[in-house]
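Anyone up for a design puzzle?
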């Protein structure tokens, strides 16, 4: 099977050595495995830039959505729970789907998909209605690439509703985009193994304020997604409650070593930003237009409008790129036809330059002259 280069929001490419780290079978009670889980949990708290006195990391088996669902099901009070969701894209809307399934009271405050969450409107809502117990927002809305102002929102939440839990979905941003946990007043944040930290898919994690987490004991409506029980068992025995993602954990340990070798989060951010600069400049030189204007500074993923040319057909464009082992992604915004190119995972500036060369060849093969006409 040929290796493909993934320029997607996930699953993302990972290094060969990270994949090779999985070639060992370990039992869930193996001391080596227990030690691995412990070190991963404490390393994630360190990467969050917070003290282990105040925060803890709870890994959850499954993809990123499992950790999101675990936070919601575990942290919304059983009685009088009321959640404010700030939504400007598909992942914010998914919060709504989860809350509907949980049958809790919630309101979705919707913003334009190509704009950041408007902090002024959030303030109006927080001050205008009483009883919010939880506020949730997506940091990097991967459907568009917009980075939301989680710091301003968090400070507002704590000013207007000091007892509410503030939850940030930093799935595609944690480990690359700067997040000041303390200044942003984050109580719960989730991400997953196969995003900016470049492990293989298979588990996600929540970084939780300990006092908030312990205050939620007994609230979960789910057995397997109960964050408090998961945390208690990990603390008491070092083990997961149910079959652990042993191979994924071993890969993640290797991925964290490789993050360190790269120079930590700041160097990874530099690489991703450089990937983003190359792809944006190159695509713009070809005449493609980005969905977001220059006021946005996200670098995780970029949405490009479909070119206005009769020969352009996304499926054909995608398939031809795929035949060259280059995997891009369809758009996920509702009102505009877009496709997306991701800059994260085990991809480097040389890969972005090669992708541009492939885009040029594919456009030529499709009879779409570059640069595109206005
Ligand atoms: C911001 C955000 N939230 C949630 C998810 C869902 O994660 P998963 O598909 O791993 O369940 C993603 C996936 O890319 C994401 O980018």
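Challenge accepted. My sequence:
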């Amino acid at each position: 099977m040929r290796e493909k280069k993934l320029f997607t929001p996930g699953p993302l490419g990972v290094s060969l050595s990270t994949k090779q780290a999985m070639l060992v079978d370990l039992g869930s009670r193996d001391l080596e495995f227990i030690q691995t889980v412990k070190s991963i949990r404490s390393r994630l708290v360190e990467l969050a830039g917070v003290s282990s006195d105040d925060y803890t990391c709870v890994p959850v088996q499954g993809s990123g959505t499992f950790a999101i669902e675990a936070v919601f099901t575990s942290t919304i009070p059983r009685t009088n729970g009321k959640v404010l969701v700030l939504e400007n894209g598909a992942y914010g809307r998914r919060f709504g789907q989860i809350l509907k399934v949980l049958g809790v009271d919630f309101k979705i405050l919707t913003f334009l998909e190509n704009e950041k969450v408007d902090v002024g409107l959030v303030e109006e809502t927080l001050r205008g209605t009483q009883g919010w117990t939880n506020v949730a927002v997506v940091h990097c809305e991967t459907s568009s690439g917009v980075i939301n102002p989680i710091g301003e929102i968090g400070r507002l939440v704590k000013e207007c509703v000091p007892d509410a839990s503030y939850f940030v979905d930093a799935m595609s941003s944690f480990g690359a985009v700067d997040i000041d946990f303390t200044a942003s007043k984050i109580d719960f944040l989730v991400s997953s193994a196969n995003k900016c930290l470049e492990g293989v898919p298979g588990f996600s994690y929540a970084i939780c304020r300990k006092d908030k987490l312990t205050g939620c004991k007994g609230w979960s409506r789910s057995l397997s997604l109960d964050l408090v029980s998961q945390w208690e068992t990990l603390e008491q025995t070092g083990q997961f409650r149910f079959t652990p993602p042993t191979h994924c954990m071993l890969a993640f340990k290797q991925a964290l070593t490789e993050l360190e070798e790269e120079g930590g989060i700041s160097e990874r951010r530099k690489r991703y930003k450089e990937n983003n600069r190359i792809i944006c400049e190159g695509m713009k030189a070809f005449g493609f237009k980005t969905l977001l204007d220059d006021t946005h500074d996200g670098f995780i993923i970029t949405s490009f409008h479909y070119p206005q040319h009769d020969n352009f057909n996304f499926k054909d464009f995608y398939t031809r790129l795929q035949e060259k082992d280059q995997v891009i992604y369809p758009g996920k915004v509702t009102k505009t036809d877009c496709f997306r190119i991701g800059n994260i995972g085990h991809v480097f500036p040389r890969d972005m330059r090669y992708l541009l060369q492939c885009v040029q060849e594919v456009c030529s093969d499709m009879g779409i002259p570059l640069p595109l006409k206005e």
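A detail worth pointing out: The domain at 264-365 is CATH 3.90.1150.10 (Aspartate Aminotransferase, domain 1).
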